[in-house]
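Q: Could you write out the predicted structure for this multi-component system? I'm mainly interested in how the pieces pack against one another.
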Amino acid sequence: MRRVSLFAIATLGSMFLGQTVLANDMNIVAEPGHPSLQAFRLPDTPPAPANNAPTPARVELGKKLFFDPRLSGNGTISCATCHNPTLGWSDGLPKGIGINGSALPRATPTVINAAYNHIQMWDGRKRDLEDQAMGPMEADKEMNADIDAVIRWLNENDGYRQLFARAYPGEPIDTDTLSRAIASFERTVISKDSPFDRWSRGDRRAMTEQQVRGFRLFIGKAECVKCHSGPNFTDDGFHNVGLASFGDPEPDAGRYKQVPLRLMKGAFKTPTLRDVTRTAPYFHDGSAATLEEVVRHYNKGGEVKTNLDPNIRPLNLTDEEVADLVAFMEALTSPFIEVALPELPR
Amino acid sequence: MRRVSLFAIATLGSMFLGQTVLANDMNIVAEPGHPSLQAFRLPDTPPAPANNAPTPARVELGKKLFFDPRLSGNGTISCATCHNPTLGWSDGLPKGIGINGSALPRATPTVINAAYNHIQMWDGRKRDLEDQAMGPMEADKEMNADIDAVIRWLNENDGYRQLFARAYPGEPIDTDTLSRAIASFERTVISKDSPFDRWSRGDRRAMTEQQVRGFRLFIGKAECVKCHSGPNFTDDGFHNVGLASFGDPEPDAGRYKQVPLRLMKGAFKTPTLRDVTRTAPYFHDGSAATLEEVVRHYNKGGEVKTNLDPNIRPLNLTDEEVADLVAFMEALTSPFIEVALPELPR
């Protein structure tokens, strides 16, 4: 009961987090190496729950589980199928496609830097990576796993039994240790060494002039930073950004399903912009194919004005400024995260 | 026309290849380092067509294509989905499952050492890796690609255009270069450094005593080597091995569909035994879950006797001998083939 209340408080708090971070960002000086740019510096390691420090044994186990299609109902689909490392740890599709070609209602969020999120999923219905891990496995249109059968199978598999014993000595193999292992691997999927990061630490050659102009627009005229704020370029808040799909006869209510406040109707979580060049198409409904389309959407102040977030308004950006903003987002691309496919227990 | 005839001759020839190799194998002396064991030594590099030497540029391109789900009809399935490196470059399923959960009629063959095959597919309907590559892509129950659209997309994609230009300078991006690139990557998926290989080169500690006993049975009493012959432990021939499924009302005719000789009814290609511990379940119909089940099937001389290959007869192996044979097959396992997932062109 206590846990639920704390979560509710955190949830309500996160809706206003954007405002808090904005206050800091207002003082940002767009000069390479300026101390104010520390506002965008990610901690070296993402936070982890006290009972799940990411030891090598946990990461190794979690990686195998992440890539193992035998955790799905028909053995064809793993976490890595939709969160595909070759496609920005997402799937390159407007909306996800689960087991047996099942159409899913929203775009697949990337795993990249999900470890830094204060709340998970487009509608924030999961607290953290541990809380999230079992969701897609159990969902009948995603991995459609028979969880009892999966847990039984893991307990009967010699290889997995040893890996769990090393990762979580003295603990049973159950949904709790399964989720914690997967979360431990996901905490290694980090983007934090982009040209922007090098520039902000003082390397003035790391960004082009156009990218610097884009950054100035980002924190200035275009006010992107109002929501895409802080080290992970997200306020972990929820906003209705006026997408055309909100004009559908039965639009996706988004965050409203979790928090029935009018402000949350059609509001979705601000995604990180780190590695955003790798995660097209964009928006929760996959309606923008390119970053230019995204910027043009904001430039006209959104499409559907009903219940629009008060921060969304026409930006009056020129074509050149639109291109500058896109160029800046390119500078948020870190080196490709190399992952060697693991050998799975037989 | 000339090409077709040569293929037909090669095809007919391959049916008797087992006999030829047997003649050599009869002289094998099961002592570590014995020159006769060179009969099992794979060449360092597998053969490649004259127009497709596996240059680094071709392998790099082919790897990206192999892992790219955007080559499928709905963007969800790549070559690597069913030929999954984490599951022995196969799928761990009794029979394949293609796009949208489509049930496929046979088990997914491994890519491991397919480069050494003289003929491809369970029924030998493809000549070589180049010939095979487009098959699953086009099949409506496998990747269900609109090939014209795929070729158009590759031609429009800057990244792929550059990769193709480096791999096949002066050649167009078409199904020919697409297949050759994928085949080039597949030629790197090689298993040839197993405990048995080290033992056969003279390292007497590389196999256990039980494994050596298993090898003696393999080339002796059990006569496995009659079909699982030569460096890749296959005669590249086709045999009806008396599986229960051949007793079905409408059994899979196998090779007979390609070569309508009675001997070929229900005959399927002898699979390699290299890395066989990684590619369960077994047989073209996935009917054996373990290698022990496979050996027990042969030990009783098959299940269905109709049109049985004349080499299949009860083996009179003791339980200990069955275990010895399985132990020998464990010794055909090479180090895990590590593959780093590639960054795909956007």
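A: Regarding packing and overall arrangement: Residues 2-42+192-330 of chain B form a domain with the Cytochrome Bc1 Complex; Chain D, domain 2 fold (CATH 1.10.760.10).
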